[in-house]
Amino acid sequence: MAKSASSPRPSRPARTGRPARSTRTGRRSPLASVALLVVGLLATGGAYAMFTTAASAEEGGNASIATADKENGEKLFQANCATCHGSNGEGTNQAPTLLGVGAASVDFQVGTGRMPMAVQGPQAERKPPQFTDEQTKDLAAYIASLAPGPDIPADEYLTGKGDVTEGAELFRINCAMCHNVAGAGGALTEGKFAPSLKGVSAAHIYEAMITGPQNMPVFNDQNISPEDKANIIAYLTYLDEHASPGGLDLGDLGPVSEGLFVWIFALGSIVAITVWLTAKSN
Predict the structure, then answer these.
(1) 193-194 and 186-187: which strand pairing?
(2) CATH number listed for the domain at residues 157-248
(3) Which of 70, 81, 104, 167 could be bridged to 232 by S-S, CB 3.0 to 4.6 A?
């Protein structure tokens, strides 16, 4: 009886001494990239929030709104401001957000009558305030509670006393190109203008510097220190208290008004005298 043939055994692969290859490709999971991005954004946002809060704290220091009525401020806001700025101050297509503008911006805009605006235009113009000082502080306290921002300046910087010479130099370097060296104001582009600074209170001048209303740049404590802001206020106070030593100031508008005066009155007088002498000789 014939023996049955045995089935051949499969040959084993030769050992090379190298470990078996893993089936994993070594690629990073997409979720890991998203997580790294989120962590980076949170870290950047947190650092920025800490910096801006610290800067705002340096610019503040006045406790005038600490006792203000925030609830009354919210009522005033909802009745007079929410239509344009949004019910939570988030802004609309008609007006910007108020989150982060701080109490200083509200005190300036509302205290000078620029807000609420009577009509839409190139910029808000100064007019008699619609609210009392107490109501303005209530509004400022409410807006300040929504997000950190520049506070109303401390009284020590609003005395009008300081280095007038240093203030004049700082004003010429940073402000005179728009407001005129005598603070008389001037025209800008697209129907806008730099307002006159004559008769403006020290608090509103300081608040304008730290909030940058309209086309004005922001001068925080890193640009101009609180002491130098006080010196600028001292210079403007000096201009208010001292009349022009040269006589008629012609509105302090510089070569424009002075040149017009010369052309109309001086040359006009010369022409009139010439005509009179010619007529007399004839």
Answers:
(1) antiparallel
(2) 1.10.760.10
(3) 167
Residue 254 has φ and ψ, to the nearest 5°, of 75, -145
How far apart, in whole angstroms, are the C-alpha atoms of residue 101 and residue 58?
15
Q: Buried b / exposed e across 105-131, counting CB within 10 Å, b at 16+?
A: bbbbbbbbbbbbeeeeeebbeeeeeeb
Per-residue pLDDT at 43 exceeds 80: no
Quick one: CA dihedral 137, 141, 142, 146, positive or negative? positive
- Give the model confidence (pLDDT) of 254-273 as tens digits: 666 667 777 888 888 888 88
For the beta carbon of residue 158, count every other beta carbon within 10 angstroms.
19
Torsion angle in degrees (nearest 10) through CA of 22, 25, 26, 32: -130
Query: Domain extents for the chain?
Result: 44-152, 157-248
Q: State which CATH number among 3.40.50.300, 1.10.760.10, 1.10.10.10, 3.30.930.10 fits the domain covering 44-152.
A: 1.10.760.10
Asked if the peptide bond before residue 116 counts as cis, ω within 30 degrees of 0, the response is yes
| Amino acid letter, residue 211 | T
**Which pTM does this prediction carry?**
0.69
Of the candidates 142, 156, 131, the one whose C-alpha atom is nearest the C-alpha of residue 60 is 156
Question: Nearest to residue 208, comparing CAs of 134, 127, 117, 108?
Answer: 108
**Residue 48 CA: distances (Å) to CA of 36, 58, 96:** 18, 15, 21
Q: Which of 244, 221, 211 is nearest to 106 (CA)?
A: 211
